[in-house]
Protein: ABC transporter substrate-binding protein
Amino acid sequence: MTPTAPTPWQFTDSRGQLATAPNRPTRIAAYIQAGATLEDHGLRPIGIFGSYHDGPDPDPAKSGRLPLDEVAYFGAGQALDPDAVLAAGTDLLVAVSYGGSAVYGMEPDTAKHLEQHIPTVVLDIGQGRSLSEVRDCFHALAASLGSTEPPEAAHALADAQAKLKSLISPTTPALLALSPADDTEVHLARPHAWPDLRALTALGVPLLDPPPEGGANWATVGWERAAALAPQLVLADVRANAAPLDPARLGTDIQVLPWNPELPASATAHTAFFDGIAEVLRTD
Structure:
């Protein structure tokens, strides 16, 4: 019997750049959020790298269902070792960007060096993309690599969204999404700047807007100014770079929900996100 010829692989990423390989890649190195997303699609990366906020160890808040004891960690930012990525036999690099073409989480020279040696896919997860668009991009990549989430994951997501939408009423308290900075300041998220928060808004969940001054994604203010917004429900950043939250800084009877601004872009993870908020609203 004549052996089957290898099937060339290709994928066009969010930059419009075509990544190609003579065979379907199987040894994937990915940004931690991308790696957690691929894990939900049945594709375990051989290694991951972090963001400039991360240290010598991966942030478990970002890792989703990845078994961190089974996946190599290549570092983050300036500490990311490109030689280790290459030595691991990586045949595909999956990175993310927040708009534009810049690879998030590694130095530009490192990204350029790796892209010269390894097929690279960069997926845009920034505010220009809806949550479903981000999810669809990863779904398409996983499908090109021969795997996908089980069909029931999409059904569970649709059910979770419908359930959450049914709980919204004129008396539903508005959520405030934030990331504690330190004892004096807090970063308040702009709902329009985050795909997951925009998805909540589209389902009718009210969110509090921070003051207009500040950056595109966050308004950094003192705790007293944040408390003046009188939040009842708070989505608090649980990533390692966020300071611990003392709810008393915002007032009394504050209910806190964990929030991962770098949630895996999978139906499984998004279902858990919507279900968590629905559970709080149901019992509020």
Summary: The first helix runs from residue 32 to 40. The mean pLDDT is 94.
